[in-house]
Amino acid sequence: MPSAYYQPLEPQASDDNDERWAIEDDDEQSCGQGGRSSQYQHQHTRCYPQLLATGDQLPSMGMAPRLRSAWSCRRSYSIMLLLIVICVCFVGYFFVSPQSSGQGNDGGAEDANGIYEPHNGKGKRRHIKLILGMEKIPQDHPFKATISKRNHGRIHGTNGHALDEPLHICSESPEDRRVYIQDKPRSAYAQLPVIYFVTPTYPRREQIPELKRLAYTLLHVPRLYWLVANDQERCDTFLDTLLSGFGIPYAHMASPMPSEFRKSKPAPRGVANRRAALQWLHQQNITNGVLYFGDDDNTYDLRLFSEIRQTQRVSMFPVGLIAEYAVSVPVVRDGKVVAFLDSWVAGRRWPVDMAGFAVSLAYMSQYPNVNMPYKPGYEEDLFLRSIGLRIDQIEPKGANCTEILVWHTQTKNKKSAVVRLESEFLDGRSNLGALFRSLKLMGVASASDSEGPVATISKNGKSKSHSFFLS
């Protein structure tokens, strides 16, 4: 039996054991090699758990090398098998993903779930640790939300996963009912590529007037298909009627933001809408034409549509009224994009506004895993990464990015107004009943018997009671 007073066994120089001890060199440091004699008993016991479990005696000092050698061989085979499995995982991660096939990033680390950690070189390693359970996932880490979403059957990654969105079409009309467009018959434009104009929108009191303003711009654009995605659980029948009345080919879909993101600050507004439009294009198997993301509060020069229509891969152009610089623009030298001017870089490879680029659907169709993750501020960047864009592929528009053809105009949103106006006076005796019913459908204003400021109705500069005019 070993004793606490025995000294640790020193490796002997012999032909039989040289190779075995060379393999075991690392193990000996943890099993008492070169340590104090009192520590050896503890380490010697820890190195033979299988003997303790069966009640057998521990090996004597003279037998330690042979038994340890056999155990270490089995352990070495296990370690080698584990290393092979890890190597296979690394090969799949780094070489099968779209990033490694010419779609990788040069500005930071990004994993398969759209978690991007710019310029620290640790993003991929941390992602692997999170998957293997080697690092605890913080409660507020976006990876936690990604796992939750996967459990609900949705995929949010930029790489390795295609979109799998639930798609709810409210109404759709592929027919172009415009007879003349810009003083020419509709048939004169039959050979032009179609522009698929994606507009994310959400219920608010400015929604309908802004959509109307945009629609009267799009009425002048031939060969355009309008994809309107509304951030609402149910279909809006008023919006259905509105879109149908313009005569522009359109598809109206309900695309609510997932509930777990609604309380985020900032919330990824518009992502669910654009993802729904991408899913619609995928389901329709549309691989010709041009994709453009156009918000309902922007201002568009009609020349923009003529320029982006011939996009071969990805075209880019300046956007006015963006943040501190009041402009976001590619830097162009000798007709090529070489850099970007934007007041908020934040590690983004593509620091551009959503309205500042257009994508050829023929080019995008080469990337089945096109995606736009729920990451506020990085939607454009991660979308362009998912289609493998390289800077030498960008086509500058707007006279080599010297003209602004789209402006990021914004309306200050306010809550829907509530006016105190008795319901008994909102009948057919005046126009106010029909007007307020329409305003309520549009989300602009509503009348109440008990809430809001009392509606002032006046004549000749003097206000009177509601009953004076309406009863």
Structure description:
- The protein folds into 3 domains: 18-95, no CATH class; 155-407, Spore Coat Polysaccharide Biosynthesis Protein SpsA, Chain A; 417-470, no CATH class.
- Helices cover 33% and strands 17% of the residues.
- It has helices at residues 18-23, 25-30, 37-46, 49-54, 64-95, 123-132, 142-151, 207-218, 237-246, 259-262, 271-283, 303-308, 361-364, 379-386, 398-401, 432-442, 466-470, and strands spanning 108-110, 116-118, 168-173, 180-181, 184-185, 195-201, 224-230, 250-254, 290-293, 299-300, 314-316, 319-320, 327-333, 336-341, 357-360, 394-396, 406-407, 417-420, 445-448, 457-459, 462-464.
- The strands form 7 sheets. Strands 3-8-7-6-9-15-11-16 form an 8-stranded mixed sheet, sandwiched between helices. Strands 12-13-14 form a 3-stranded antiparallel sheet, with no helix packed on it.
- The longest helix has 32 residues, at 64-95.
- The N and C termini lie far apart (110 Å).
Structure described in brief:
By secondary structure, the chain is of the alpha/beta class.
List descriptors:
single chain, 471 residues, alpha/beta, Spore Coat Polysaccharide Biosynthesis Protein SpsA, Chain A, 3 domains, eight-stranded mixed β-sheet, three-stranded antiparallel β-sheet, 21 strands, 33% helix, 17% strand, disordered N terminus
